[in-house]
Amino acid sequence: MTRPQPPAWLHPQVRALPDTTAPIDPRRLDEQRRLVADNTPAEAGPGVPVHHVADVDADGVPGRLYRPAEGRLPVVVYVHGGGWVDGGLASHDPLCRLLAARSGAAVLSVDYRLAPENPWPAASDDVDRAIDWVGSAAAAEHSLDGGRLALSGDSSGGHLAAVAARRCRDRGIAVRAQALFYPVIDPTGATWGETVNPGLKAPNMRWCWDVFVPPGVDRTHPDISPALGDLRGLPPTLVVTAEHDILTPEAESYAAALAEAGVSSVAFRAQGLVHGFVRRLARFDAAAAAVDVAAGHLARHLGG
What we know:
single chain; 8 strands
């Protein structure tokens, strides 16, 4: 006997928001980028106080370093979302502040090059350079402990973080943990479906993939499709997803594949929520709770 399924439930904080998601207009991309940055105070709040915040040059890659305390600190390299075409230091400032405050680790937010002006592999190369900088003498001047390194990111930033974790393993760089918020994993879009809920829509996700990885590039390469690489030996991983997000099936499948490969892997799904909720700390109660879960996971593996 088939059990009746409960009706889909949207959190009241989601229902209160109009669905303003529209097809991406490449001619207005600069305007969209400005709006995302300008709207961050309303969406995410002012951000919690952090002991010290400074913009840094991570071997040519712009970054922002959040230090929650004095002394030599472990480091979380944070990679922002935005479909590889949007977002930056301003859009994720409140989130990175909270992650630093909650985890007790320094957080390095990476301002990688964006598509379509800089298609793959520019963003991944920038993340690698920032990670290398964390272990350099220049970073040591900021009292960073490059031997206690973790990675984190949301959406397309989660994709870049997942790719970086495997590349670090292959380059002999120890990563103690990764925390991924609704990461993009599969360029085929096989499980996306359609949605009428506020948040990410399949046509926009397809457009982002097409400008990030132009035609002619092999999308089965593990630097593009993280689940298709060798997952053995990757760091303990937390994957946070949202119930009403077209990326949830692929993100949770990635978490399952990691577990099957012998990696410590945990997945949490936020009920009633949509894609992008973690950055919107002033809109969704679940955002700070998700950051707390991620911070606890990172702190546990970075300690000692």
